[in-house]
Design brief:
alpha+beta, Alpha-Beta Plaits, 4-stranded antiparallel sheet, 14% strand
């Protein structure tokens, strides 16, 4: 069964709308769903809610939502503030394409300029611009047309060439791009290899890259020698002003 879900959040601290909180929610959701044989088909953050499209047995979906809320409430105890997740509103899905587009319109209704101009939905994943641990876009293959979803969210034609030539980005921006493509924060080592390859492509030498990561030049050279499958995605993000809006 496929359900459309709204989870409301009561927040009184701006940090809860930031990258740390939201990445934590998404990773927690994916872990809870995987443990209960539930598929996360789409997600999107609105102003005060998380929109989801979930597939699985109704009881399994109930337990997935409960586990995500409890884990998030526990994580929120680190902040000197109040956090409360409201009751979930659940509706059976009749049109999967419309349900996914509804999820992806969440960030737009919260102020994003376009569906690709925010990392807080699964839109980038669906269109192949991100590969994050918290969302498996392969579960949507053949079930919806990504370009139809893009159009339903108000998206324009995708750019044909990436990246633009003659651009000199600073290393902090390249690190944020690499982190966003992997769906992690810039301090997370899981994005370091992608950052090294991206910086190399954009003309940066080994020493400043090593200093930016607080690594040895030897370790940076090791990362350069490894294959990086997500470099193409990072270059696309770098070349598109919508995708380059990153935490």
């Amino acid at each position: 069964m496929v359900e459309q879900v709204v989870v409301g959040f009561s927040l009184d601290v701006p940090a809860f709308a930031g990258a740390t909180f939201r990445y934590g929610v998404l990773e927690r959701l994916q872990a809870c769903a995987a443990a209960r044989d539930v598929q996360v088909l789409a997600f999107g953050f609105g102003r005060r809610e998380l929109r989801l499209v979930l597939e699985g047995a109704p009881r399994a979906i109930t337990n997935t939502l409960r586990g995500t809320k409890v884990g998030t409430a526990r994580a929120a105890c680190r902040y000197p503030s109040r956090f409360r997740a409201g009751p979930s509103q659940r509706t059976p899905v009749a049109d999967l394409t419309e349900a996914v587009a509804w999820c992806h319109r969440g960030p737009i209704e919260a102020g994003a300029l376009s569906p690709l101009a925010s990392p807080w939905s699964s839109h980038r994943d669906l269109l192949g611009f991100r590969e994050a641990r918290f969302f498996d876009a392969s579960v949507m293959e053949g079930r919806v047309d990504p370009h139809v979803v893009h159009a339903m969210c108000g998206g324009r034609t995708l750019p044909l060439r990436w990246p633009p030539r003659g651009r000199a980005e600073d290393l902090s921006f390249l690190l944020r791009i690499a982190a966003a493509v992997r769906g992690v924060l810039p301090a997370d080592r899981r994005c370091f290899r992608l950052f090294v390859h991206l910086a190399k492509t954009r003309g940066w030498t080994t020493l400043p890259v090593a200093k930016a990561l607080a690594l040895t030049t030897r370790r940076v050279r090791q990362l350069k020698a490894e294959r990086e499958p997500n470099l193409r995605l990072a270059l696309k993000s770098l070349g598109d002003p919508r995708l380059s809006l990153v935490p």
